[in-house]
Design a protein that fits this description.
The protein is mainly alpha-helical and 395 residues long. The protein is 51% helix and 8% strand. It contains 17 helices and ten strands. InterPro entries: Cyt_P450, Cyt_P450_B, Cyt_P450_CS, Cyt_P450_sf.
């Protein structure tokens, strides 16, 4: 094998796409190890990733793991009983509650609030004469939106930001930080659910608590873990979708000009930015419930399988000039939000947030440019998420 035993290094954190090309050329599934030493299979070709995402023989339940391959975040039961770790029928039962909250119509009704908050944040950037796209726009906007949707008090939202960063990009010199962050998350959400039970409001979390208490088959752990998942995915992914999208446009000024001048529809542009470099590298890990074949490779039951979403989205057998950013790309069947029963239910919200923020930013500031050299950009040390620490710009 030409693929390193552990391919996840600093070069991968900054630019994973050469590694993805090597994986696709190597085999349908490549054995490797994650930085914590866990053995995994890397599946990177678009056809195989798409098929695997919808294959019922690939379970997301840890009960089907052989125990050697996946260590993950070691979440407590109150956070672990979420959709990402459940197969049907439990997954179907809980997902029904979530999809009812993230309907395209309900998300579209939030667009005016997203537009107003984006304008307010851009006003602050204008007064400053520039700033950090992440800290000044991409962080506060989704945090406010998902906080308002779920009914999370403003004081607790910023704590959650710190905890998620600790989990996604843990400090190797402080292994206890992740355990502490998980404990803090759990305590925060258990308390929040209790508060919603005592004083319900017109928000999604109150509605979920009411559903649980009215006799719906939802355990207390499932309720807390749903709150965890909704807050995590409704915040972390849009933040870095915006950051990666803005950087991609700054690196391709001719494409930025198309969006700024109204020569491409913002929704179409966001679909291409999702394909080109969305933050989450891999789908939730899978465990075969029986020996399966992916391409020419046999993967034993219980092994850990990682499906490389961003590699699939750059596969030249599916996308013409796959390495090129093309906001006018027509047919764009990317897998940024997954495929099959675990397709991301919050996708409509993330799309709207990216459309509004990125478009407003490049149109408000026609001279938008990087404030540092590209070699000064720093990426989070995470193999799970391709995401920047900061994106300083001048206007």
């Amino acid at each position: 094998m030409t693929v390193p035993a552990c391919p996840f290094d600093q070069e991968f954190f900054a630019d994973p796409y050469p590694a993805y090309a090597a994986w696709r050329a190597e085999a349908a599934a490549v054995p490797a190890r994650t930085p914590d030493g866990a053995p995994v299979w890397l599946v990177s070709r678009e056809y195989d990733v798409r098929a695997a995402l919808a294959d019922p023989r690939l379970s997301v339940s840890k009960r089907n793991s052989n125990g050697a391959g996946y260590r993950g975040f070691a979440l407590p039961p109150a956070l672990d009983a979420n959709l990402l770790n459940l197969d049907a029928p439990d997954h179907t039962r809980l997902r029904r509650l979530v999809t009812a909250a993230f309907t395209p119509r309900r998300m579209a009704a939030m667009r005016p609030m997203i537009q107003a908050e984006t304008a307010r944040l851009l006003d602050r950037i204008a007064v400053q004469g520039g700033g950090d796209v992440l800290a000044d726009l991409a962080f506060p906007l989704p945090l406010k939106v998902i906080g308002e949707l779920l009914g999370v008090p403003e004081a607790g939202r910023h704590d959650f930001d710190g905890w998620t960063t600790t989990l996604i990009a843990p400090d190797p010199d402080d292994p206890g930080a992740a355990v502490k962050a998980i404990g803090n998350m759990q305590a925060f959400l258990v308390h929040l659910v209790a508060e919603k039970r005592k004083q319900p409001a017109e928000d999604l979390l109150s509605a979920l608590v009411s559903t649980r208490d009215s006799g719906e088959r939802v355990s207390e752990d499932e309720l807390v873990s749903l709150a965890f998942l909704l807050l995590w995915t409704g915040y972390e992914n849009p933040v870095h979708l915006i950051g990666n999208g803005v950087l991609a446009l700054l690196r391709h000024p001719e494409q930025l000009a198309l969006l700024r001048e109204g020569e491409v529809d913002p929704a179409q542009a966001v679909e291409e930015l999702l394909r080109y470099d969305q933050p989450y590298q891999f789908a939730i890990r899978r465990f075969p419930i029986e020996d399966i074949e992916i391409g020419e490779v046999t993967i034993p039951a219980g092994d850990t399988v990682l499906l490389a979403i961003n590699s699939a989205n750059r596969d030249q057998t599916c996308f013409t000039q796959a390495e090129r950013l093309d906001l006018r790309r027509g047919h764009n069947p990317h897998l940024a939000f997954g495929h099959g029963p675990h397709h991301c239910p919050a996708a409509p919200l993330a799309r709207i947030e990216a459309e509004e923020t990125i478009t407003a930013l490049v149109r408000r500031f026609p001279k938008l440019r990087l404030a540092v050299g590209e070699d000064e950009l720093r990426w989070r040390p995470s193999w799970r998420s391709h995401s920047l620490r900061a994106l300083p710009v001048e206007i």
